């Protein structure tokens, strides 16, 4: 059963908003608050219980608006039901919510400022619904015998309009069984489809009894018994995903006070005895060391700083923005920009692509097809090292496997292999301190709540030595803690011009800080291990290169008439489809040290799991056996090594001053003087992709002919094919965010985009 409420607030100051939140938490699943007048609007939208709002009214005056805004509806939703919302559609006067098999709308139609023509237009935009409720500012005469609406000479034009709309849409007016006459003589009404009329119950709740200050006498409380068969064909009921407790955060702003910093460091000294007790015992048990270190930092932070839950904090008035605005340092400015970006994206909610599923279910299905493949190799038999069953290292590894059976058996490495890898030189106490000083203090923390600012205030304690001990245990054993392989994945919208669905999103992984710091330290070794020679046409993650390098190079080649045929390539989920078998093969051929190769497997492919965060809801853990984590410091360089063989083959027979392609990570463009040469380059790329488990998003690729007057597509004597499909012929293409046309950068269009 769904409990849906509607109340006309007639202004929404902080005290009344708090009352509305209590109403939702005690009595409703969905609560619409009308006439909030857009008071503290941006702060309201950041509240975790507000799902969406009506759109702001457009000002028709050229002068600055005077006075307050009018109208407005907020939709408040219980957290465990957010995952059921397929989509919401908002206008200036209505909010429509789509659930599996049930679609309902809340409206507020002002009495004088809304013309009948605009009202009809809004009802047409809403379309077919199962339930419509709200303040329509009209009354209906009541026939107690027939219990239907009848028209009379005293009936207003708006009431006739709604009666006509109800008849045409198969809707009936719903009355409170105990207050039939009152239901027709108040401005707030409920209409239900004839198909679900028997499943709808209306209760008029006195606002005086609720102590809710408004000029409306009643609150609408609609009960929908949704256990009945759904009205949408071929729709099966979908259970809501239970809300998972959010991550714990610490009040790190309190570290601005010197006395708190001293207390923070003093409490760490008390925790230091924990590590002394375990010193020298099971030095290679990385999970034990990681657990102790993480718990110690969390314990000190909880004792000194205190904890809070982000969801609860967002329900309170935002005082951090005012405090940050008074700070003149760069971190505070960055935090203000990030807060503004988050606020602007609050109203952007993922929607369902179909009427029979939810955004969460579609996201789980979409990313399961990408992340969960049969390419997983849990035993990791490819790496061979010399060790005997009776060696101490073998006994330690057997102990770890016995207490952690889900972690596959891992080979150990002799001292020669460890020293040859160069890893120990990159992980020292001094370099840990230096790297922590370089890391952004505003970067997202993992689910453990440990931030860069917290660790920086522990640099003068014994913490760096203990962290170095953990990292050295990882390097010598070739293992990393299992906790590091759990990620929170946020699917971000790729193209805001298209519906924000699961397929129109890219996954960003939030990882724990211990892992990100470890990866940053070993990044130089990962980049240089073996006899790798990076292709000169790759500009991604190269010192002194940027996207501007490729953009200007391509523009210069087109202007010089040296790039007659251009093919823009678009990989399908490039980072997310890199399989371990293919990556391992490339890294071994490049001569990567066995220990370094083992660490790559441990960090990227061993027992990976993730939870999706969709519209504020967290999914159950899902397995991940494929792909490089977007959010990991190692992923870009690993992808560069993975794709390097393709770039080398494309540029093999090219002139020194004329590249056959330009790449920035996975964004590539092929350059050829003739169409035959262009097709040959495309064939090389297609063959490489087939051998490495990759594919191209061909509709998003593009073939362009430069410096020729193309009258029509039929002008071209030939077309290019990729994977037996024609590459779309284009006259305009956006490459690395810059619009290109047949004569190079389209500066006019680029200026329009920027403006």
Structure description:
The chain is of the alpha+beta class and 755 residues long. Strand 29 (738-741) and strand 30 form a beta hairpin. 36% of the residues lie in helices and 18% in strands. Residues 60-64, 143-154, 228-237 and 375-409 have low confidence and may be disordered. The chain has 24 helices and 30 strands. The protein has a 6-stranded mixed sheet, covered by helices on one side.
Name its key features.
755 residues; alpha+beta; six-stranded mixed sheet; globular
**Which of globular, elongated, flat, extended, rod-shaped describes the shape?**
globular
Low-confidence stretches: 60-64, 143-154, 228-237, 375-409
| Overall pLDDT level | 83
Find the count of extended strands (DSSP E, 2+ residues). Answer: 30
State the end-to-end distance: 49 Å
Number of helices: 24
Structural class: alpha+beta
The biggest sheet, with number of strands, parallel, antiparallel or mixed sense and barrel status, is: 6 strands, mixed
* Cα-atom radius of gyration: 31 Å
Helix content: 25-40%
Amount of beta strand: 15-25%
The strand order across the widest sheet is 3-4-2-1-14-13
Short description:
This protein has 755 residues and is an alpha+beta fold.
């Amino acid at each position: 059963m769904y409990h849906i409420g509607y109340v006309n607030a007639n202004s929404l100051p902080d005290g009344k908003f708090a009352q509305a939140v209590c109403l939702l938490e005690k009595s409703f699943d969905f609560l619409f608050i009308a006439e909030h007048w857009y008071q503290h609007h941006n702060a309201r939208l950041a509240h975790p219980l507000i799902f969406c709002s009506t759109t702001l009214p457009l000002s028709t005056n050229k002068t600055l608006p005077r006075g307050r805004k009018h109208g407005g509806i907020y939709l408040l939703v219980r957290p465990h039901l957010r995952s059921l919302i397929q989509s919401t559609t908002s206008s200036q006067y209505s909010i429509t919510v789509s659930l599996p098999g049930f679609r309902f709308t809340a409206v507020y139609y002002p009495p004088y400022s809304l013309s009948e023509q605009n009202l009809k237009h809004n009802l047409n935009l809403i379309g077919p619904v199962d339930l419509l409720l709200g303040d329509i500012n009209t009354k209906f005469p009541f026939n107690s015998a027939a219990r239907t609406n009848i028209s009379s000479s005293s009936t207003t034009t708006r009431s006739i309009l709604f009666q006509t709309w109800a008849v045409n849409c198969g809707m009936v007016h719903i009355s409170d069984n105990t207050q039939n006459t009152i239901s027709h003589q108040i401005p707030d009404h409920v209409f239900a489809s004839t198909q679900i009329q028997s499943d709808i119950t209306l209760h008029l709740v006195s606002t005086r009894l609720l102590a809710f200050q408004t000029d409306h006498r009643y609150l609408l409380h609609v009960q929908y018994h949704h256990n009945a068969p759904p009205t949408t064909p071929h729709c099966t009921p979908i259970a809501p995903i239970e809300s998972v407790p959010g991550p714990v955060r610490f009040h790190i702003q309190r570290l601005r006070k010197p006395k708190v910093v001293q207390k923070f460091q003093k409490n760490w000294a008390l925790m230091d005895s924990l590590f002394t007790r375990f010193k020298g015992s099971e030095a290679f048990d990385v999970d034990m060391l990681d657990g102790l270190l993480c718990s110690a930092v969390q314990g000190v932070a909880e004792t000194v700083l205190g904890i809070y839950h982000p969801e609860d904090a967002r329900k309170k008035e935002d005082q951090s923005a005012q405090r940050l605005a008074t700070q003149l340092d760069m971190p505070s400015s960055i935090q203000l920009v990030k807060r503004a970006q988050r606020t602007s994206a609050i109203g952007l909610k993922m929607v369902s692509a179909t009427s029979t599923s939810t955004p969460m279910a579609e996201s789980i299905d979409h990313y399961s097809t990408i992340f969960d493949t049969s390419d997983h190799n849990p035993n990791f038999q490819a790496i061979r090292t010399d060790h005997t069953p009776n060696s101490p290292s073998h006994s330690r590894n057997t102990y770890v496997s016995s207490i952690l059976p889900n972690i596959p058996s891992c080979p150990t490495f002799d001292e020669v292999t460890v020293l040859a890898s160069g890893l120990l030189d990159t992980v020292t106490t001094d370099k840990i301190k230096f790297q922590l000083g370089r890391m952004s203090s505003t970067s997202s923390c993992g689910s453990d709540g440990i931030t860069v600012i917290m660790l920086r205030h522990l640099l003068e304690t014994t913490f760096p030595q203990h962290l170095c001990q953990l990292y050295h245990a990882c390097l010598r054993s070739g293992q990393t803690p299992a906790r590091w392989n759990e990620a929170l994945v946020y699917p971000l919208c790729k193209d805001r011009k298209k519906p924000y669905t699961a397929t129109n999103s890219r996954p960003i992984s939030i990882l724990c800080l211990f892992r990100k710091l470890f990866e940053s330290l070993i990044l130089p070794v990962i980049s240089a291990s073996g006899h790798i020679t990076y292709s000169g046409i790759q500009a991604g993650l190269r010192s002194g290169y940027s996207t501007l390098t490729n953009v200007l190079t391509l523009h210069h080649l087109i202007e010089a008439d040296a790039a007659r045929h251009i093919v823009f390539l678009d990989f399908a989920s490039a980072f997310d489809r890199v399989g371990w078998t293919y990556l391992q093969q490339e890294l071994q051929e490049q001569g990567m040290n066995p220990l370094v190769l083992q660490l790559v497997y441990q960090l990227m492919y061993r027992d990976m799991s993730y939870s999706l965060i969709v519209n504020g809801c967290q999914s159950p853990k899902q397995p991940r056996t494929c792909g490089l984590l977007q959010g990991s410091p190692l992923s870009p360089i690993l992808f560069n090594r993975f794709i390097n063989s393709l770039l080398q083959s494309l540029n093999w027979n090219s002139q020194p001053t004329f590249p056959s392609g330009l790449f920035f990570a996975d964004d590539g463009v092929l350059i050829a003087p003739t169409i035959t040469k262009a097709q040959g380059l495309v064939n090389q790329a297609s063959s490489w992709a087939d051998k490495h488990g990759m594919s191209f998003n061909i509709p998003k690729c593009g073939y362009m002919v430069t410096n020729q007057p193309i009258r029509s597509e039929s002008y071209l004597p030939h077309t290019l094919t990729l994977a037996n499909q024609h590459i779309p012929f284009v006259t305009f293409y956006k490459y690395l965010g810059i619009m290109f046309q047949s004569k190079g950068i389209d500066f006019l269009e680029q200026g329009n985009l920027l403006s």
